Amino acid sequence: MASNQRILLVEDDVLIGMMLADMFDALDLPEPAQATSNEEALALIAAEPLAGALVDINLGDEKGWPVADALAAKNIPFAFTSGGGDVIPPAHAHRKLITKPFRISDIEAALEEFGV
């Protein structure tokens, strides 16, 4: 991964976001960019180069589909995260889905698919 490119974590639960950031540290990866809403994530996607993203499907009262669309438009690899029970739209059905509770091996495998 280029030193100027980070992974974006889109997760509305602050504790889960902290746990994921700890997993990045355990994997000896740079601190991820973090967003808790579509609005924050879209601003980060527009502002900095990203090596990939993990996008929670359920962001409070909204879904992460706009983030997925923006990442796809910029050819940034990403995977979805979810507590389960979500149907991924056909345009993104080929994307990896990592279910909660997260295991560090699942996170590591997704990041390896991004080339990280």
Description:
The protein has 116 residues and is of the alpha/beta class. It has a single domain, classed as 3-Layer(aba) Sandwich (Rossmann fold). The chain contains 4 helices and 7 strands. A 5-stranded parallel β-sheet has the order 2-1-3-6-7, with helices on both faces. Helix 2 packs parallel to helix 3. The protein starts with 5 loop residues before the first strand and ends with a helix. 29% of the residues are buried. The mean pLDDT is 92. GO terms for molecular function: DNA binding. Keywords: DNA-binding, Phosphoprotein. It comes from Sphingopyxis italica.
Which keywords apply here?
Rossmann fold; Sig_transdc_resp-reg_receiver; 7 strands; DNA-binding; DNA binding; alpha/beta
How is this fold's topology laid out?
Elements: E1 6-10, H1 14-26, E2 33-35, H2 38-47, E3 50-56, E4 58-59, E5 62-63, H3 65-73, E6 78-82, E7 97-99, H4 104-113
Helix pairs in contact: 2-3
